[in-house]
Amino acid sequence: MGRTFSRLEMLDRFNAQITANSPVLAAGPANGIVAKCAARGGADLIVSSPMHTPRSMGFPTRVIADFGGEESKRMVEIFWQVANSTPLVVGLDANDIFSIDHDKLLDRFADTGISGVANLPSVQHFGDPYRTRSTKMRRGFNREIELLQRSHARDLFTVGFVYYPDDARAMVQAGADMIIATAGHTQGGSTSYPEQSFDEAIAKIAPTIEAALQENADVFCLGHGGPFNSARSTEVLYERTRAVGVYATSGLDRIPIEVAIKKKIEGYKEAVLADLRVSS
């Protein structure tokens, strides 16, 4: 069974880890078996989001309707059973049509064992033009800021997922304890998003992290996406930015599962049947 962590416990936990020069790993699994393995492997927090569900269905990460947190709650209930002593952070869609009342949405998760809240999915996943249109309809990124403000007021650990420096500043001002600076979707695997070089990804992530730290030097900043899809690749992230960890999603399950299962099947097919034919 799981355990709920207070915001202070999580702050102390991550500060101690960084002092020990160990990166923070936020795992974004798509199903229970990956969440269980991530927790046993030492993940520092498990982030649930309806965005992850398509990966368990064989598709790349994509935004799907959450209908007032329905899919998020289902995932949290599963992760609570298998993640044991790892903090659970729930990703919520601040713009979902059934989540207009953020207090009511947060009330729905009050007894689920969550330790924090993240703005996942974000309206920014659909690109700048959609974000602009949504803002004109009184939806958009401002609603995500409000969601984290309300979560912070409840003393929950808050995680701001952002694309731009200005968004990072706004999230930190709203009380975000952790900022995930993304380069965009994670590349690699059989169904991949467009590739980025390390230079291109760093050019997106580094300024966002710097903006967050200018607002609050104590905020935890993680990198995500682009070419950062393996342990080796994150060394570049730590060398060239002030990130203290990584948010692993497709690099945690979709890509390694594809590789491992393909290799396993090939091994089965390499086996040779015994000659059971009976000579006449």
Structural description of this entry:
This protein is of the alpha/beta class. It has one domain (7-270): Aldolase class I (TIM Barrel, Alpha-Beta Barrel). The protein has eleven helices and eight strands. The chain has helices spanning 7-19, 32-41, 53-56, 70-82, 102-108, 128-136, 141-153, 165-173, 198-215, 231-240, 254-270; strands at 24-27, 45-48, 88-91, 116-118, 157-162, 178-186, 220-226, 245-248. It has an eight-stranded parallel beta barrel, surrounded by seven helices. Strand 1 (24-27), helix 2 and strand 2 (45-48) form a beta-alpha-beta unit. The chain is globular. It starts with 6 loop residues before the first helix and ends in a 10-residue tail after the last helix. The relative contact order is 0.13. The model has no long low-confidence stretch (mean pLDDT 90).
Number of strands: 8
Tally the helices. Answer: 11
Q: What order do the SSEs take from the amino end to the carboxyl end, as H and E? A: HEHEHHEHEHHEHEHEHEH
Mean pLDDT: 90
Largest sheet: 8 strands, parallel, barrel
The CATH class is identified as: Alpha Beta
Sheet with most strands: strand arrangement? 1-2-3-4-5-6-7-8
CATH superfamily: Aldolase class I
Q: Which blocks of ≥5 consecutive residues have pLDDT under 50?
A: none
Please indicate the count of domains: 1
Radius of gyration equals: 20 Å
- Residue share in β-strands: 5-15%
Question: What do we call the CATH topology?
Answer: TIM Barrel
Structural class: alpha/beta
Based on Cα principal axes, name the global outline.
globular
Percent range for helical residues? 40-55%
Our measurement of the CA-to-CA distance between the termini, rounded to an integer number of angstroms, reads 61 Å
Which CATH architecture would you pick?
A: Alpha-Beta Barrel
